[in-house]
From TrEMBL:
SMART domains: IG. PANTHER family: BUTYROPHILIN SUBFAMILY 2 MEMBER A2-LIKE-RELATED (PTHR25466:SF14), T-LYMPHOCYTE ACTIVATION ANTIGEN (PTHR25466). The gene is Vtcn1. InterPro entries: Ig-like_dom (IPR007110), Ig-like_dom_sf (IPR036179), Ig-like_fold (IPR013783), Ig_sub (IPR003599), Ig_V-set (IPR013106), T-cell_Activation_Regulation (IPR051713). It is a single-pass type I membrane protein. Transmembrane segments: none annotated. Residues 3-128 form the Ig-like domain. The keyword Transmembrane applies. This is VTCN1 inhibitor. It is found in: Cell membrane.
Length: 135
């Protein structure tokens, strides 16, 4: 991570003992990375992977058949979400959310599923985002 990146982001993600979920904090206007990793032996085949980021029934980001599929993305998140495409085959499904807004405060669910000839069990993780006013 470049030193510049460390100074521009005041984002804190932490684990709470006794709870499997992650909590992240960000200020309005910042960029936050919501962590999500999948466990799989070897590299993942992205062309037969499905990845959902959602809040309840709201679709925040969807990746399918090796590419972003944002036709049904909630308009509140349009143009503000991205994945780390170069790291996904290694199981990094973290979501980058830019220009954080107060309405972004929620519990996000990351859902990963391998499809095709060797489907695996669906993997889920939850990330709670707490948004504060401008620092």
């Amino acid at each position: 991570v470049s030193p510049d990146l460390l100074h521009t982001k005041k984002v804190v993600c932490f684990f709470i003992p006794g709870q499997p979920d992650t909590t992240c904090r960000a200020f309005i206007g910042e960029t936050v990375i919501l962590p999500c990793t999948a466990t799989s032996p070897g590299e993942l085949i992205l062309s037969s992977s499905m990845l959902y980021w959602q809040i309840d029934s709201v679709l925040v980001h969807f990746f399918h058949n090796g590419q972003d599929s944002l036709a049904f993305q909630d308009k509140h998140y349009h143009g503000r979400t991205s994945l780390f495409l170069d790291q996904m085959k290694h199981g990094n499904f973290s979501l980058k959310l830019s220009n954080v807004q107060s309405l972004d405060a929620a519990e996000y669910i990351c859902i990963y599923r391998q499809t095709g000839d060797n489907p695996n069990q669906t993997q889920k993780s939850k990330v709670k985002l707490i948004v504060s006013g401008k620092a």
